[in-house]
Specification:
The chain is an alpha/beta fold. The chain is 45% helix and 13% strand. The chain contains 27 helices and 17 strands. The strands form 4 sheets. A 7-stranded parallel beta sheet has the order 3-4-2-5-6-1-7, with helices on both faces. Strands 8-13-12-9-11-10 form a 6-stranded parallel beta sheet, sandwiched between helices. Helix 17 packs across helix 18. The two termini are 42 Å apart.
Length: 579
């Protein structure tokens, strides 16, 4: 903030919920003129503007939802210097009309949010962001601050280069979100049943379930409704009004589950998301980190759970191969997918592996991920690997893992008989492992480069370039042992607002405060957390302020909210039994 206030440029990397917005909002108020914030999504703009206005800041957004009369008023306030911040999409910013408007305004700064979109290596690349280098050329002397929660080393350097930002302007606040518990599980039969078991630990809590396809989004949302959950779908194929209504309900209702593709979530500032679940693997660790980071923005315990299988790897690899991206970009995307698969298959602390990807260091295992809470057993898998590799070779390097496993287990399927695979030397030699254990072995062999997936064909397994030393017996292979049972539920309740309130009277007061907050939010057509966070209400319930001065000392009660809501919430505290 000091650098930007003094006129310097910078790139800020800070975890989701870590305070990135403050890094440009405070300088915007300190410097004369209007701050122009480039933001990729209308929903993100609306959230930010609503929160700023309630805090007493003069903020507005210019996008397709603003009618022409209001747009002219906003532009007039920009010229007059009475607006503190204005949010725009990169497409509008780059128009000649908007550039002319900026020429007639005093500009405090430019903030480029979700700056990973600038880089072709970023997981949400948007071509319009590539042209934002013109800001430094056309408005020299106006400070620029680019911000993102997810950028590995190459992506950071690409952002600095494309925006022409100084190397000494890189600020990295760390990537650790210690309140999030990371759990990754293999798909076992019906993955919906696995999801349902996970969600039982999060009854009546808000969360997001990500799926790879639109069809799976709708099917999963409908399934969850039959299981007693309140769930809504969200994907780009839905009608615009339906998407907007479902997102609004997620922001304003308590305990709603949104099932979505990656079209949902960027910049959604809902602090009390208690879980993020993935029914399919995302494409990279950056995407995984960005999406899981939407949980627990209030700092209270949250959980990120993912189920994955080798078929996920095949699907994503096919997406990469069939895309129109240049070969260099495809190569980077394959490396990113390999890194995510490595995170999924690791026997180490997941948080350490995750942070190392971003060149961050956690000295000791975190104690708050599944591999820490239930350490993974490893074994000498050399002989198992040799059997698997030999079977892939002897069946012609053209079949997927399911068929190879059938052969190893001595199955009697039509396919085995059709191709004569019941007469090869590897038929029935793998009966010491279960089908689930063989699935795990094949995933790990792909992760280690001993097998590869034939993307150009039909996803069959082929021998990898590093397999020969294993087949010759010159190299050993260590594998993680597949758990023989479902992972135990370990979702911590410690720290959640209701659990902090041990006194029943405090809990009753907390619920009364939440009810009034919900009423106010509906009256003002804003999400409840814009009025007060749960954490703030919990502190009110336990400290029971009796004056505005005492209320002002509660975390989350600023001067504007104290003036707007203070007397009303004090009255609820004073009238509630147990004072």
């Amino acid at each position: 903030m000091e650098r930007v206030v003094s006129g310097g440029d910078c790139l800020v990397l800070m975890p989701t919920g870590g305070g990135k917005s403050i890094c440009y909002q405070v300088p915007a108020l300190c410097r004369p003129g209007v701050a122009v914030v480039i933001s990729p999504l209308i929903a993100l703009m609306q959230d930010q503007v609503t929160a700023l206005r309630l805090a007493g800041v003069e903020a507005a957004a210019l996008n397709s939802t603003v009618d022409p009369y209001e747009a002219r008023d906003i532009e007039g306030r920009m010229r007059a210097g009475t607006l503190d911040l204005v949010y725009v999409a990169p497409e509008r910013l780059l128009t000649a009309q908007f550039q002319d408007l900026l020429d007639n305004c005093r500009i405090a700064l430019f903030a480029i949010d979700e700056a990973h979109c600038v880089s072709q290596w970023g997981h949400d690349f948007r071509p319009e962001y590539m042209q934002l280098h013109i800001l430094g050329e056309r408005f020299p002397g106006v400070p620029r601050i680019a911000l993102t929660a997810t950028a590995d080393g190459p992506t950071r350097q690409d952002i600095l280069k494309r925006l022409d930002l100084p190397a000494d302007g890189l600020f990295i606040a760390g990537f650790d979100r210690p309140n999030i518990r990371y759990s990754i599980d293999t798909k076992r039969g019906n993955v919906r049943q696995q999801l349902t078991r996970f969600l039982k630990d999060h009854a009546r809590e808000a969360g997001i379930v990500y799926c790879l396809s639109r069809a799976k989004v709708e099917e999963t949302a409908a399934w969850l409704c039959t299981q007693g959950f309140t769930a809504l779908p969200y994907h780009a194929g839905l009608e615009k009004d339906v998407r907007a209504a479902n997102q609004h309900r997620f922001l304003t209702d308590d305990g709603l589950v949104i099932v979505a593709t990656i079209a949902f979530g960027m910049g959604i500032d809902k602090p009390d998301v208690r879980f993020v679940a993935h029914l399919d693997m995302p494409k990279s660790i950056e995407a995984y980190y960005q999406e899981t980071g939407r949980a627990g923005r209030d700092g209270l315990p949250a959980e990120a759970w993912m189920a994955y299988g080798l078929q996920d790897v095949v699907k994503i690899s096919q997406f990469i191969e069939n895309s129109d991206a240049p070969d260099a970009q495809k190569r980077v995307e394959r490396q990113k997918l390999d890194a995510l698969l490595g995170l999924a298959e690791t026997a180490r602390c997941r948080r350490q592996v995750l942070l190392e990807y971003f060149d961050d260091v956690l000295a000791e295992p975190c104690g708050n991920c599944d591999t820490c809470l239930e350490p993974v057993e490893t074994f000498d898998g050399t002989e198992a690997a040799r059997k698997a590799l030999s079977c892939v070779y002897r069946t012609g390097e053209m079949f997927g893992a399911a068929h190879i496993i059938d052969v190893l287990l001595g199955g009697n399927t039509d396919r085995i008989r059709k191709f004569g695979h019941d007469s090869i030397s590897t038929y029935g030699i793998g009966e010491e492992f279960s089908r689930n254990e063989w699935r795990s072995i094949f995933r790990q062999l792909v992760t280690q480069g001993l097998l590869s997936v034939d993307i150009a064909g039909h996803g069959g397994l082929k021998l990898g370039p590093d397999c020969r030393p294993v087949l010759r017996g010159d190299r050993s292979v260590d594998l993680r042992r597949e758990a023989a049972h479902e992972p135990k539920s370990r979702t911590s309740r410690a720290g959640k607002p209701r659990q902090e309130l041990e006194d029943p009277a405090d809990l009753d007061l907390f619920e009364a405060l939440r009810k009034r907050r919900a009423d106010l939010a509906r009256e003002q057509n804003v999400p409840p957390y814009v009025v007060f966070h749960d954490r703030t209400l919990a502190e009110m319930a336990t400290s029971r302020p009796s004056s505005l001065d005492q209320m002002a000392g509660i975390n989350g009660v600023g001067a504007s909210k104290l003036e707007r809501y203070g007397d009303e919430f004090l009255a609820i505290v004073a009238s509630h039994p147990g004072v």
